[in-house]
Amino acid sequence: MKHIVFIVNPISGVHRKPERLIAWIQEIFGPSAAEYRILKTRHRGHGVELAKEGVRQGADVVVAVGGDGTINEVARGLVGSQTALGVVPAGSGNGFARNFHIPLNPKRAIAGLLRATYRWIDVGQINSHFFVNVAGMGLDAVISANFERFGMRGPLPYFIVGVREYFRYHPRAVDLHFDHQRLQRFPLLLSVANAPQYGNGAIIAPEAIPDDGYLDLCVLSPLPLWKTVLNLHRLFTGTIHYVKAMEIFRIRSLTVERSGPGYIHTDGDPHMEGQRLEVRILPRRLKLALQPAT
Fold first, then answer.
1. pLDDT tier at 156, thresholds 50, 70, 90
2. Which domains does the chain have, with CATH numbers?
3. Is the CB of residue 241 less than 8 Å from the CB of residue 116?
4. What is the CA radius of gyration of the chain?
């Protein structure tokens, strides 16, 4: 590793202490032989721009210092290039870091980059939006949109928004077209997963593998409230696929037709999209810098 760029989101996470993160980067990389730069994002989408500039300047690794939204932005700027994505988790959910066993301690994650190993992983796409972890088109997308407006970060605010939206949400019919099949469902959750979990230990696709050339399509039909409460623990124990209302299909592409526009989310980042959604997998299009095996 000769040239590394750190892209720091100063408003990621709950505690928001970017200067401490920057000091750790300087402490660890200052004595090293690597040339490094530290940049801060200034607005939504800025991480994409900075990552693309890093590719143009020949960076070996561009590191996202932030949460899953920051990782998504930086990854979007690196898709299809030879520049690797590094991650220093500093968000509230840190689903990507948990999926790839990156230390949640930021200082340990920074130090691990000095001895990084590399792995090519798949990238998912919904219409024009890339994702590397999990995307959704049901209740989880509505929760993401409302959580973004909530004004507070962290697991507790997310739980509060999630419970509120659960009682407000009205599933609507969707037509799913994949592998010469056509299914109609009224899903509570409709997600496509490249890796197993959303974040905070919530595992939506226990058997998803991020470099197998497939996405896991997860369709959860509505449950009575008592069954939802009874099975909620399965989301955190990797056993959600044992719930009878959950169907999981391995797909390479998918067309979703719904009754009208609505929210989707890509790695927790909400977008308003139209009636028709085209989903596909881009096999091994992102190079990932991982912690060395212990």
1. confident
2. 3-115 (3.40.50.10330), 129-281 (2.60.200.40)
3. no
4. 19
User: Within 13 Å, how many C-alpha atoms sit on residue 4's CB side?
Assistant: 26
pLDDT surpassing 90 at residue 18: no
Strands 215-220 and 189-193: antiparallel
- pTM (predicted TM-score): 0.91
Each residue's pLDDT tens digit, 81-113:
999 999 999 987 899 999 999 999 999 999 999
pLDDT of 14 higher than 70 = no
Q: Determine the Cα–Cα distance for residues 156 and 159; give it in Å rounded to an integer.
A: 5
**Buried b / exposed e along 90-123 (16+ C-beta atoms within 10 A):** bbbbbbbbbbbebbeebbebbbbbeebeeeebbb
- Per-residue pLDDT, 293: 67
CA gap 98, 208 in Å, rounded? 14
Cite the beta strand spans of 71-196 per DSSP E. Answer: 84-89, 117-126, 129-131, 134-136, 174-178, 181-185, 189-193
230-288 residue pLDDT tens = 999 999 999 999 999 999 999 999 999 999 999 999 998 999 999 999 999 999 999 99
Check: CB of residue 291 under 8 Å from CB of residue 102: yes
What one-character DSSP code corresponds to residue 173? -
Dihedral, 17, 19, 24, 27 alpha carbons, nearest 10: -160
Task: For 259-294, list the strands marked E by DSSP.
Answer: 262-266, 269-273, 276-290
Quote the DSSP letter at residue 196.
Answer: S
Closest C-alpha to 108, from 25, 12, 17: 25
Contacts of residue 78, Cβ cutoff 8 Å, sequence gap at least 6: 51, 54, 55, 62, 84, 85, 286, 287
Which residues sit opposite 269 in a β-bridge? 266
How many secondary structure helices (H) and strands (E) does the chain include? 9, 18
